[in-house]
């Protein structure tokens, strides 16, 4: 008999919007078709290993508060295997098709890299068989090059090439493990790839180094024949006061500058966007309108707190606006909705992990349905396309096709006089959105 970690909790089922059962979906029904495609295929939900199975509830003012039944064994490798088994029990009961990990969450680091890699191999072997039995896939793997003290001054941006080499070795191995598990993507989040003080920092040197690391990753990807997409996840600050991957626009510029543009896409996280002073839908739009949206991390921040609170997404406006952008640009393709979110410190029972994910999945399912209805009715699209229609004809067309000159436009204004004033109708449009929500 296999160990049970979530005793008394069965498979989470869809019971519809009138259900009062807190352990049932009210809106997410995997097989239900929205615009010709199942919800499961639209949303491609993914559970993260780190917060969900490695989170302890610690914060800057206090240590661990969660007692997890998969964290009880004395031997660290036994704990790692229990955590992996607990993850698959959870994922199977919840019914997400994907999960995601960092190398260090699934296997603890040993005293040297050789033994660390051996440990990782052992867990990857277990994950492989659990994935096969459960029919669950890896959305992405990534390497934790930020927690260990060696990465205090960064990984790729570290002033010491020995540390750079360590990060490179770790990324090599994590990418190979991701390939081994059939991962759809591989993510680079530059935790500590930034500075905390300009007085000791050569910014250009650090960014050149970072680019070299990514170039090597592209070469290695080709060498081993890994077919997943490489993703960069922007974040403006935390842990450093300025991270080089500030936001989607900054990362796109970086990728262009260093010849990496065709080899990467972006993984956009809600609260990273808001920490950068943007909305989620802003950063999604920046990435998607260039065809560079790879995947999304789903969560939310707290507008009263200035740090990355990684709360579960329950705000219907945010999920609706996100799904509007995603549907408009043709869906998530190889990406997914990855819950990079954690339960609050006070929500320490294992069942709280179910409540949190059910809420996030229902919020995205509603966002998807609302966005789909809005897009089929087309009221917003029609308004926007009418707003720019002037560029499809006459002088607007001449501007966009490169025919008009400053002198021609001067003549145009001298003849036509003052342009007509036209309202942007923001309140009317917001009222339309509210009608659907
Ligand atoms: C940190 C964060 C990471 C990345 C993966 O804020 O979002 O968990 O998603 O390294
Ligand atoms: Co993230």
Name some characteristics of this structure.
437 residues, alpha/beta, TIM Barrel, two-stranded parallel ribbon, binds D-xylulose, binds cobalt (II) ion
SSE topology:
Layout: E1 13-14, E2 24-25, E3 33-34, E4 37-38, H1 39-43, E5 45-48, H2 49-54, H3 76-94, E6 98-102, H4 103-106, H5 113-134, E7 137-142, H6 161-180, E8 185-189, E9 194-195, H7 203-224, E10 229-233, E11 242-243, H8 248-257, E12 264-269, H9 270-275, H10 280-288, E13 293-297, H11 316-328, E14 337-339, H12 350-377, H13 379-387, H14 394-400, H15 406-416, H16 426-436
Parallel strand pairs: 1-2, 5-6, 5-14, 6-7, 7-8, 8-10, 10-12, 12-13, 13-14
Antiparallel strand pairs: 3-4, 9-11
Helix pairs in contact: 3-5, 5-6, 6-7, 10-11, 11-12
Bound molecules: D-xylulose and cobalt (II) ion.
CATH class of the largest domain: Alpha Beta
Task: State Rg.
Answer: 24 Å
Q: Would you identify the CATH H-level superfamily of the largest domain?
A: Divalent-metal-dependent TIM barrel enzymes
Assembly state of the chains shown: single chain
Ligands: D-xylulose, cobalt (II) ion
Q: Which runs of at least 5 residues are low in confidence (pLDDT < 50)?
A: none
Give the H and E element order. Answer: EEEEHEHHEHHEHEEHEEHEHHEHEHHHHH
CATH topology of the largest domain: TIM Barrel
Structural overview:
Strand 7, helix 6 (161-180) and strand 8 (185-189) form a beta-alpha-beta unit. Helix 3 (76-94) packs parallel to helix 5 (113-134) and helix 5 runs parallel beside helix 6. The chain has 437 residues and is an alpha/beta fold. It has an eight-stranded parallel β-barrel with strand order 5-6-7-8-10-12-13-14, surrounded by four helices. The protein has a two-stranded parallel ribbon with strand order 1-2. Strands 3-4 form a two-stranded antiparallel sheet. Helix content is 46%, strand content 12%. The protein has two domains: 13-377, Divalent-metal-dependent TIM barrel enzymes (TIM Barrel), CATH 3.20.20.150; 391-436, no CATH class. It is built from 16 helices and 14 strands. The chain binds D-xylulose and cobalt (II) ion.
